[in-house]
Amino acid sequence: MNYAQYVLPAYGVVFGAMAAFTAVLLLRGRRLGRNVADEDKPWT
Amino acid sequence: MTTGGATAADTEAAPPTASGATGVAPSPVGRHSATGTKATRVIGVLALIGVPLLLLLGLVTSPEDVEMGDSVRIMYVHVPSAWLAYLAFAVTALGSVCYLWPRTRSLAWDRFAGASAEIGVLFTGLALATGMLWGRPTWGVYWTWDARLTTTALLFLLFLGYLAIRRLPAAPEVRAKRAAIAGLIAFVDVPIVHLSVEWWRSLHQGATVARRDLNAELDGTMLFTLFLGLIVFTLIYVWLLLHRARQLWLEDQQLDTSLDAAIAERRRESGLPPAAAPSTTGAAT
Predict the structure, then answer these.
(1) Would you list the domain boundaries of chain B?
(2) Which of B29, B139, B179, B209 lies deepest, with the highest CB count within 10 Å?
(3) Chain A interface includes B136 (CB < 8 A)
(4) In this predicted model, what pLDDT tens digit does every residue of B189-207 receive, in sequence order?
(5) Nearest residue of B to residue A6 by CA position?
(6) What ipTM was assigned to the predicted interfaces of this complex?
């Protein structure tokens, strides 16, 4: 693959950022979710 | 709800922690799923199936471009990132309008607007980053003050400002109103970004797929990969939006709970009887 020095970092940045955002979201959601019983959550 | 003899009021009246912060003791009641539901799990699984497929098609199977070579593969993450930025900010604008409209006013719209703006900022940043990485082999520079690039950078800054406004200390209704107005003002830049390549002389190429003559200038495999990217990124966006909006609801609940606990503590310190029933419905409206 030519231009691999640009293509691979582009994919790395995109999927790395999405994975990091998702991980933070899940961990924070799990922590906050502990404070409220499922019955009180509008989405459950 | 009352399993184990505890109620939500027990949690709401949690005392401040030793450090002085009004802590919220984890509720001992019920199951504690976080922000997921069956729908988000289905969307998540579909996205997880789509990502490796996109990687395979984008990095291996799709052909290289005659002029740009393999750097064209950046298109499969750059265009969906830009598309998601537009979509996310459109949802922010919609949520802002719905909040400002008296008949539909609800903090739920504000939460959707805020959650979508955060995701929009993320994807605008990714569109800028991937655009720079694509620009270097194509134009010879990472950055140039071209109309499309400049208006996109401005969009990024405008919505960063929107997120900063959301963090200013204020009552939820005041925050929501401020943010809704700011969100609508910032959204004005979205059509400017999109039309910038037509309005000004630009290094950035014009539309290759969303053309007025509906004649996409792309090879079949490339077009398929690009559409797959758009679908996968949209699934990821919906998943992130639902989780983040629910998380904002939980944060509002925690704020209400902490406030109620602080008020109860001050009343106790002053020798006043406890308030009848702490309000917990504010975050749900």
Answers:
(1) 38-65+73-253
(2) B179
(3) yes
(4) 999 999 998 888 777 877 6
(5) B133
(6) 0.93
